[in-house]
């Protein structure tokens, strides 16, 4: 059995710690951000029903998401789609990652486009 890297263990620990306090509802969903090396993804989740309400990603937008500009474009598109569904307030889940770089750029772009965190 392969061992998990120390960084991965710490990431999972941070994710569990945040998820204990944050829960999304239909009125105020949880916005979770996943970033890979090439792309970035955001989705609004209703934890009561386990359904994804709104999603946006650099893959769907066909833009390079490995940059801050790509993250800003995903954040803006995500906020526009969320407002179309009637969502204005959300809980932000950084998914165990630090709040800087692409994660922060996505959040700031979503705030500028009208979402309230």
Would you kindly provide a written description of the structure presented here, covering whatever features stand out?
The protein has a single domain, classed as Nucleotidyltransferase, domain 5 (2-Layer Sandwich). It is built from four helices and four strands. The chain has helices at 6-21, 58-61, 68-84, 102-112, and strands spanning 30-35, 40-46, 51-57, 91-93. It has a four-stranded mixed β-sheet with strand order 3-2-1-4. Strand 1 (30-35) and strand 2 (40-46) form a beta hairpin. The model has no long low-confidence stretch (mean pLDDT 91).
Domain tally = 1
The largest β sheet comes out as: 4 strands, mixed
Give the amount of beta strand, in percent. 15-25%
* Termini separation: 41 Å
Q: Whole-number average pLDDT? A: 91
Using the 3D structure, state the CATH architecture: 2-Layer Sandwich
Task: Please compute the radius of gyration using only Cα atoms.
Answer: 14 Å
Let me know the number of strands: 4
- Record the strand order, biggest sheet: 3-2-1-4
Rough shape? Answer: globular
Instruction: Assign the CATH class.
Output: Alpha Beta
Q: Unreliable segments (pLDDT under 50, ≥5 consecutive)? A: none
Helix content: 40-55%
Order of helices and strands: HEEEHHEH
Structural class: alpha+beta
CATH fold group: Nucleotidyltransferase, domain 5
Count of helix runs: 4
């Amino acid at each position: 059995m392969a061992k998990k890297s120390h960084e991965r263990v710490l990431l999972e620990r941070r994710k569990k710690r945040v998820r204990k306090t944050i829960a999304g509802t239909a009125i105020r969903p949880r916005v979770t951000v996943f970033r890979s090396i090439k792309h970035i993804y955001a989705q609004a989740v209703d934890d009561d029903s386990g359904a994804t309400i709104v999603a946006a990603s650099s893959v769907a937008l066909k833009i390079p998401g490995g940059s801050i500009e790509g993250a800003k474009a995903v954040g803006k598109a995500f906020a526009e789609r969320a407002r179309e569904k009637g969502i204005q307030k959300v809980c932000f889940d950084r998914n165990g990652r630090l709040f800087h770089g692409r994660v922060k750029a996505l959040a700031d772009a979503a705030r500028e486009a009208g979402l309230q965190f």
